[in-house]
Design a protein that fits this description.
Length: about 400
């Protein structure tokens, strides 16, 4: 007869409900592997359960409530009282991970959070385990399924952002208030956690530059696809010199990039290191049963006695804001001779060389769409300002970053 592993479950919504069902379904196999038979010994929601009672009757606290308060206070108390903790709460881990990891270390217990980033995609475990010996140079992630679904649907149907967002809300892929997802804040919390694991340094989530997908136009997606590019909302963390750059923005990818083929609500993370070239992990980034499976994986690790310690953060690394990137540039121009050379002169003044260009439409509809080679953000932004002042431009220029790496070629 295996010893019970008593679970205090905080939150029984989409993930908590699925986790409860999964524990019942998998209890025998977890017991066979770990020697501990998991059982839910108490549940807390807004309407049922008592936290003190749950604490008195559990060995592990599984937090699937979300939000900072009361989750933070409850998890602090659980760690101080020697309970292992599992949480899927990216907001809490990204903002207060440091304090919680320290409490876990001081009290000799585990704080696991695989489901907090990219759902069931095991990126936390890979960074903390298989790749813990590699010097990571860069991580690019599609870590928000809502935005990936919206961008994929915009590309597939040609519909505009508002139409596809409404459809995503109808299908349950987007919240009634989608701001957290579409403005990139959810992705920022996740890339802050990955930054801490990859580079050992804490970043302030609120200082991460975030550009969302709300202003993406269907014709940008269509024109760029003629150049072989597909659009994703990408969260990036990378070493730049002695510092790091952490950011979230829409990015075009060439077909050979491993993230280019990730469609729908899937998540994927590409981890780059000189030692390993790149590793890409992909899979469902959300969903009750999927996320619950990552939570159960953490529970099995705890029941097996696996220990993963997060060492204290290093001194903060300098945050680099002026990075280099290639850019997609969309110009609505007057249809007359000499315009292309005017544009080329501005780009040349700022050291911007063009990799590809397409000219589309006539008269009122004339467009110049081009992709540059890598250039600093500062130079590109200065060129944009100068382009905006050209009288041959009929609208503000539109620009979107492009990742040039193409591991497939
Ligand atoms: N949904 C996903 O696909 C997904 C994927 C990855 C990570 N996550 C993370 O998993 C966590 C849970 O997400 P979810 O989608 O399952 O949320 P949810 O469906 O809204 O469920 C939240 C649960 O927590 C309870 N709760 C919330 N505030 C509480 C409070 N102050 N006191 C007591 N109980 C409280 C709710 O109680 P009531 O039932 O009484 O309202 C509900 O049972 C979040 O941190 C989320 O970011 C979710």
């Amino acid at each position: 007869m295996s010893e019970p592993l008593r679970i205090g479950l905080l939150g029984r919504g989409t993930v908590g409900g699925a986790f409860e069902a999964l524990v019942a379904q998998q209890a025998d196999s977890v017991a066979a592997v770990t020697g501990r038979r998991p059982e839910i010994s108490g549940v807390l929601t807004r309407s049922v359960g008592d936290f003190d009672e749950i604490m008195a009757n559990s060995d592990v606290i599984v937090e699937l409530m979300g939000g900072l308060d009361p989750a933070k206070g409850m998890l602090e108390r659980a760690l101080i009282e020697g309970k292992h903790v599992i949480s899927a709460n990216k907001q809490l881990i990204s903002r207060h991970g440091e304090e919680l990891w320290a409490l876990a270390g001081d009290n000799g217990v585990q704080l696991r959070f695989e489901a907090a980033v990219a759902g069931v995609v095991p990126v936390i475990r890979v960074l903390g385990g298989s790749l813990s010996g590699a010097r990571i140079e860069r991580i690019h992630g599609i870590v928000n399924g809502t935005t990936n679904f919206i961008l994929s649907e915009m590309a597939r149907t040609g519909a505009d952002y508002e139409t596809v967002l409404a459809e995503a809300q109808r299908l349950g892929y987007a919240e009634a208030d989608p701001t957290e997802d579409v403005a990139g804040h959810d992705a920022a919390a996740k890339i802050a956690i990955l930054t801490r694991l990859a580079f050992g340094t804490s970043v302030d989530v609120d200082s991460i530059p975030c550009e969302g997908i709300e202003r993406i136009q269907p014709d940008d997606i269509a024109y760029a696809s003629e150049l072989g590019l597909s659009l994703k909302l990408i969260a990036t963390t990378e070493r730049v010199g002695d510092g790091i750059s952490v950011r979230v923005h829409p990015v075009f990818l060439y077909p050979g990039h491993p993230l280019a083929s990730i469609g729908g609500a899937f998540n994927a993370v590409t981890i780059e290191s000189d030692d390993i070239t790149e590793i890409t992990l992909s899979g469902p980034g959300a969903g009750g049963p999927q996320t619950a499976s990552a939570v159960l994986g953490d529970l099995v690790a705890i029941a097996s006695g696996a220990v993963t310690e997060i060492s204290p953060a290093t001194d903060p690394l300098p945050i680099v804001t002026d990075t280099e990137s290639a850019f997609y540039l969309h110009l609505e121009v007057e249809d007359r001779p000499g315009v292309l050379s005017q544009v080329a002169a501005v780009l040349g003044d700022h050291g911007i060389s063009v990799r590809s260009v397409v000219q589309r439409g006539l008269g009122e509809n004339a467009r110049l769409v081009m992709v540059s080679h890598r250039v600093s953000d500062a130079s590109f932004s200065a060129a944009l300002t100068q382009l905006s002042g050209l009288e041959s431009l009929r609208a503000e220029p539109r620009a979107i970053r492009v990742i040039e790496e193409d591991f497939g070629s």
